[in-house]
Write a structure and sequence with these properties.
By secondary structure, this protein is mostly beta strands. It has one helix spanning 52-65, and strands at residues 10-17, 20-24, 30-34, 40-50, 71-76, 81-87, 95-98, 101-110. The strands form two sheets. Strands 1, 4, 5, 6, 7 and 8 form a six-stranded antiparallel β-sheet that branches. Strands 2-3 form a two-stranded antiparallel ribbon. The longest helix has 14 residues, at 52-65.
Length: 111
Amino acid sequence: MAVYPITPHRIKNVKPVFKTGVIEFENGVEQRYPSWSAQKKTFRLEHYALTTAQQNTIENFFEEMKGQYGSFGFYNHRDGQTYNVRFVQDELDFEAINSGLANLTVEVVTC
């Protein structure tokens, strides 16, 4: 399994996500059921002052994963666990900060 290539400077918004289906009947009674067998977690990975080489590494990895299509391992240095995740979006948006350096924020979600 591929592994996310660069340790982010910051991991934010680690949040559990559930998906619940709700059926509402004409008499107002609701029936609820879980659509997923387990919760998913979303991680926001923040990278600061990435060099051109680091940007290329992340971009090549993103292309290898075909955006949100492929799954990969992500080591969360905050809790010491490795998660099987995928990208949330099909695009990367590097923010140039000066010659050759850029910031990048990406979101990944457990599979």
